[in-house]
Amino acid sequence: MSNHSPHPLKRSLKVIVILALAIWGICILWQHRHGIVPPKLTPEQVSETNTRIAPVGAVYAGVAGEAQAQAAATAMAAAAMASSKGPAYDGTLDGGVIYGKLCKTCHETGTSGAPMLDHAHWDARLAQGKDTLYMHAIEGFTGSSGAMPAKGGNSALTDEQIHAAVDWMTSNLH
Ligand code: HEC
Question: What residue's CA is closest to ligand 1, atom 36?
């Protein structure tokens, strides 16, 4: 066998590749001729299909799907808002009301070491600065006299509501 003539196996490989490409090309031509390649969908058809499959898989694809996914997320957030209790005590920012509904249970009587509203109990605490008091009331704080639970134990209170309650307490010392 001459060194220049290709190995018979190589030659038949070449033939196979060329044939495969030709067949592939013919297939594509044939599909186009016979309309087997699906026509482009109208946006209405796309969204109809998305609506049909959405509840099952909640899979959103394409631009229309993106918009739908966003709508679904918004709806879920709205539902969550509606079903949750919302901020505590109707979201009041009246520190006296919040104190009366919750903080008072410990701070009026000194239950479990809570400082009662008098200067003897508060002057040293006030010296720490308001920000520290806010932080301890929001995050909770264990000191030398006992344990202040985070937000007095009601996590539905917003930080602003806690600020209001602390402000009310520190301006009502006797
Ligand atoms: C379950 C009892 C309890 C309730 C309810 C409670 N506290 Fe307290 N609180 C404590 C105790 C105990 C301390 C003292 C911790 C220490 O210094 O050892 C404290 C301390 C504090 C301090 C001082 C923190 C510091 O750095 O000295 C603030 C401010 C405070 N509470 C705010 C509030 C507010 C506002 C509420 C209501 C939203 C509230 N507390 C409800 C028990 C309570």
Answer: 103
